[in-house]
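Obj: model holo form, ligand = erythose-4-phosphate.
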Amino acid sequence: MKIFIDSADIKEIREVAGWGILDGVTTNPSLVCKTGRPFKECVQDILAAVNGPVSVEAVSTDSSGMIKEGEDWAKLDPDKVTVKIPMTVEGLKAVCGLTERSIKTNVTLVFSMNQALLASRAGATFISPFVGRLDDISQDGMDLIHDIVGMIDDYGFDTEVISASIRHPLHVIESIRAGCHIATIPYDILLKMTKHPLTDAGIKKFYEDYQKIPRT
Ligand code: E4P
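Output (holo structure tokens):
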């Protein structure tokens, strides 16, 4: 499973890129807002820091506006820029238009199999089911990931599934079990994924024993 970071914080992104495990980045207007920085400046820094797709959200409500935004963002880096399109009828039209222009898309705010089917048929490069937000309303988000990954496999669609709105390390493990293509993971959860108490205990014991080895 590929690993994206769900962040617009350039320090976090640069640090995780330095771990050698980062395949891409997803942002959204709320994440950019948290940085306090201008949108374009933020996106330019992320594009420079990462070798892989960088999702940037279109905020227009009509398809022609979304396509125009997508074309403008793609000028910054046609290989990396992926236009995040909300799952609406206008969004589906925009996905078709951007696909015709060879611009990558990530259909976001996907909460059902039907939405996933429509987005895949429209030609989305990626679709992002939001696991945590479904859990929040007492619907099992991981069930949706299992169902969508199964559908993509059964029908041989090219669309890749991004497990999004991840809230804890178990969501990542379940995404792997579901055969999801990608998980987009917040920085704090990526850090938690590196930890295990037995690793810490093992390092401590090896260090203590190393100190007891006679020096010649
Ligand atoms: C994905 O692309 C979204 O940016 C993100 O995963 C949303 O997560 P949230 O529900 O924690 O805001």
